[in-house]
Predict the structure.
Amino acid sequence: MTPRPAAILFDCDGVLADSEALAALVVAEDLAGRGWRVDPARCRAIFLGRAVPDMKPVIEAEFGPLPADWPARMSHLLTERMARDVVPVPGALEALARIAAAWPVACASNSSRAELAAKLDRLGIAGVFGGRVFSFEDVARPKPHPDIYQAAARACGADPRDCVVVEDSIPGIRAGRAAGCRVLAHAGELPPGPLAAEGAEPFARMADLPGLLGLG
């Protein structure tokens, strides 16, 4: 029997906020405005789980140079769009409420502070985490490095090895695994194989998450 975890550490995009398609659209619109044609689906495939600063060298390698302030400008565009249009992943808010009543919880995202705050505020769940909210700007290295989940575990007063991470992206899974956490991966409608290959335990619906953690 799996031991009871000490804390549950949530990613945001694709786990709580149904934001990944929206973010890909914002990036694709920006690139199209620079004369580089790339559709949102391709942007989503390339940039899923990446922090904005990590997108810049990838874009430049394929398309050409970007302004030095592109990451800051893109973060601003994303924050504005998320504050206005983001919606929850189906079943996520109900699952979070049940889990937060049973365990300490934290949120750890590769978003900027402003973008992450906009999403949590829009979804009405910022207060659920009691200040235990971390962006890539709060740690030395973003996902796939373990820093952000190590910080989130400490904020919950827990050893990362006793925590469960809830993720959906390869960089996020790698970060959770590198921190020593058990990782449950929300696959949604995507094939679970690539997530399982990274050492995560895939599941299809956020509504199933409480049961996977042992809540009846």
Observations:
- The radius of gyration is 17 Å.
